[in-house]
């Protein structure tokens, strides 16, 4: 079965000589001259995720992953991945809700469409949804393409919710488990159980109460 996702070649993100290469979290502030949508429009491709030359094992491309943090007051939504999508993340706790950008039924998705779709596929929430772009994640793997870190670029957004009524969507409860809305101190106690991207976000955003 065909399963394509949005990717961008490494050189368009990091530069032909890796002059823009970074590891960890790259903060994007308001007014900064960086347009991820423009980068995707100019250089994005939809390619097969799986197979001999699939994007899941090709370290020359980055799969673009919108990654949404939900915050209400001083607490962040945390859940645990049990099954489903990325096997390399099973049984790890996550601060980010998101997934791949798909071709879509009526033409190519935009990043904004994809992050909204992924968010509301994963969770049940009826409040304000105004995602704000705050940064990028590039987590270093072995470089072999066998590590989840080698082939995914996180585009990090934050949503400041106006109510705390958020839960795992009913159809996703076999795949994910709600941990809760937790303070940074409570999240810190779970640090060793968290996926890599969530550790990066915790260290760079949550601990410092940014954005």
Structure description:
Helix content is 19%, strand content 32%. The chain has a domain at 25-34 and 63-101 and 110-206: Nucleoside Triphosphate Pyrophosphohydrolase, CATH 3.90.79.10. The protein has helices at 10-14, 36-43, 111-122, 184-188, 196-206, and strands spanning 4-9, 24-27, 45-48, 61-72, 75-81, 93-94, 96-98, 123-125, 132-138, 152-160, 166-168, 176-182. Strands 1, 2, 3, 4, 5, 6, 7, 9, 10 and 12 form a 10-stranded mixed β-sheet that branches. A two-stranded antiparallel ribbon has the order 8-11.
Question: What's the structural blueprint in terms of helices and strands?
Answer:
Blueprint: E1 4-9, H1 10-14, E2 24-27, H2 36-43, E3 45-48, E4 61-72, E5 75-81, E6 93-94, E7 96-98, H3 111-122, E8 123-125, E9 132-138, E10 152-160, E11 166-168, E12 176-182, H4 184-188, H5 196-206
Parallel strand pairs: 4-10
Antiparallel strand pairs: 1-3, 1-4, 2-9, 4-5, 4-7, 5-6, 5-12, 8-11, 9-10
> What proportion strand?
25-35%
Largest sheet: 10 strands, mixed
CATH fold assignment of the domain at 25-34 and 63-101 and 110-206: Nucleoside Triphosphate Pyrophosphohydrolase
CATH superfamily (homologous) name of the domain at 25-34 and 63-101 and 110-206: Nucleoside Triphosphate Pyrophosphohydrolase
Mean pLDDT: 89
Give the total of beta strands: 12
| Quaternary structure | single chain
- The N- and C-terminal alpha carbons lie at a distance of 41 Å
The CATH architecture category of the domain at 25-34 and 63-101 and 110-206 equals Alpha-Beta Complex
Rg (C-alpha, Å): 16 Å
> What ranges have pLDDT less than 50 throughout 5 or more consecutive residues?
none
Order of helices and strands: EHEHEEEEEHEEEEEHH
What level of helicity do the residues show?
A: 10-25%
Taken from the alpha-carbon principal axes, the silhouette is globular
Structural class from helices and strands? alpha+beta
Would you state the CATH class of the domain at 25-34 and 63-101 and 110-206?
Alpha Beta
Number of helices: 5
């Amino acid at each position: 079965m065909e399963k394509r996702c949005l990717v961008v070649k490494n050189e368009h993100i990091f530069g032909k000589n890796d002059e823009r290469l970074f590891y960890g979290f790259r903060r994007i502030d308001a007014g900064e001259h960086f347009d991820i949508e423009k980068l995707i429009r100019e250089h994005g491709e939809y390619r097969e995720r799986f197979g001999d030359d699939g994007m899941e094992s090709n370290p020359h491309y980055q799969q673009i992953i919108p990654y949404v943090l939900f915050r209400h007051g001083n607490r962040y939504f945390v859940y645990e991945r049990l099954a489903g999508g990325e096997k390399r993340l099973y049984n790890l706790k996550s601060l980010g809700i998101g997934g791949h950008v798909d071709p879509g039924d009526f033409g190519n998705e935009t990043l904004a469409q994809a992050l909204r779709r992924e968010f509301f596929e994963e969770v049940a929430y009826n409040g304000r949804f105004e995602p704000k772009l705050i940064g990028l994640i590039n987590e270093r793997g072995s470089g072999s393409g066998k590590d989840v870190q080698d082939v995914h670029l996180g585009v990090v957004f934050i949503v400041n919710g106006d109510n705390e009524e958020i839960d795992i969507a009913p159809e996703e409860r076999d795949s994910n488990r709600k941990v809760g809305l937790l303070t940074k101190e409570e999240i810190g106690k779970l640090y060793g159980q968290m996926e890599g991207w969530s550790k990066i976000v915790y260290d760079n955003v949550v601990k410092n109460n940014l954005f």
